[in-house]
Structures are given as structure tokens and as C-alpha cells.
Amino acid sequence: MAxxxxxxxxxxxxxxxxEKIGKVAPQIAIPTAAGTGAEVGRACVMSLLDGSKCVxxxxxxxxxxxxxxxxxxxxxPPRLTAATGIDAMSHGVETYCSTxxxxxxxxIGLDAVRRSAKWLPIAVEDGSNRQARWEMMxxxxxxxxxxxxxxGGAHAMATPLGELxxxxxxxxxxxxxxILRFNKGHADAAYADLRDAMNVPAGQELHxxxxxxxxxxxxxxxxxxxGVDEAALPTIAEKAAxxxxxxxxxxxxxxxxYLTLLKQAM
Length: 266
Description:
By secondary structure, the protein is mainly alpha-helical. The protein has 9 helices and 4 strands; from the N terminus they run E-E-E-E-H-H-H-H-H-H-H-H-H.
């Protein structure tokens, strides 16, 4: 805004506004949670005054300098550690399964998953564990880098749900198991690698493991626990189907599919 003027909504990727973004003011990005990976991203998500989410995406918005200091996350409470950490993990999961072909981003995303599966429970249990905080900061950074491979249905649903003023990472923790179940059979090679990275026991479904993992971190596993009204789901499903992140989900999904998923996630 400092270099371009106008309104935030003028740069919405969904309306073609992001194409107007040129050279921006210098940025130094310092994350204070290990989650979004936004510090290395080309995108920013903004909450507008009407409650809607506006996403701007352009390589010109990549920060000039990024300082990732896990010391800044030592005081993050367990619940936020868990919710932001699940977001970092989900970036690796969904980008690894996405239909876009980007082997370097895939490799980075898979490592983000591996680190998160091992170290997130430790960071939640003992926030003073410096190695766990360092590992999760790296997982979040890697998750942000892997976004170049695009995301999928869980994030497509989480964006409109976030307009209800619900925490993004918490929503992702609820939605990710359902999209993993929905995509089964459409990303078999990716699922095999993810199972190995997460150390999922033989015979256990990936989505079941993820539900248990989220629950073990003390996070909710149903939208009803967040106070979501089922009457709002059809509108959210329509918005999810139109979200640009839905296009890279391994299994094509329409509004009706998202409505079914959202009802199951209640």
C-alpha cells in the first residue's frame, strides 16, 4: 500500500488485481509463530473490514530479508503452538499431494511434514524445548517455501470459514483429515511418501492417523466445537469450490462435494 495506494481489495488475486502489483516497499519479515510460512511467501491474506478474506499473490511481495528466530516462539501457548504447527504441517501435506509438478517444492514440503510429525507434539508438551521450537520454525519456513506447488481442498474450505473469525490453523486441523479421506485413491504415490514421513502404522488409514494426531495436540476435531452453524455451510461450500486453491486438489471437487465434507467435519 505504501508504494501502490488504493484499497487492499484492489489487489485481490481472485479479481485479477494481483497482476497490478509491481515493486513494493522494502520488507523485513520476522515470524513470531511457527505456522504460516508467510515470511517467505509471495502471498498475503488480509481480513477486510467487511469480514471477508482478500488474498494478494505476486512474486514482488517476497520479503527482502527474513529473520527466523525460534526464541520468539518460546512463549507461544500450547494451543497456539499446536494450531499454528498444524498449519505448517498441512502446507507440506497439501502441496505434496497437489496436481502441480514442482519436485524441489515437493521435497521441501515432505521434509516439513517429517519435522512436524516428530517435533510438534514435543513443542506443545514443552514449549521451552529449544530444539523442538527450532525444528518447528524450520518446518514452518519449509511449508512456506513449498507453497509454490499450490495447496488443496482443506485450505479452499478454511478460507471462507475463516471469515467467521475462526483461527486458521485450528480449522485446518479439523478439515485436513476429511480432505485426506476424500482424496484417497487420487494421490497414491504421495500418500505412500506421507505415511513414511509421518511414521503411520501399517494398516492405519492416513486420515484416521491425522485425526488422532490433531486430537493428541489438544485441538478440536469438529466444526461444531467452534460454534459453526450448519446453516452457513452451503455458502461456505460454494466459496470453497470457487477458491483458486481448489483447482490443485488431486481429486476434483465441486460445491456439493465440499458441502458433504463440511457436514462430515461438523
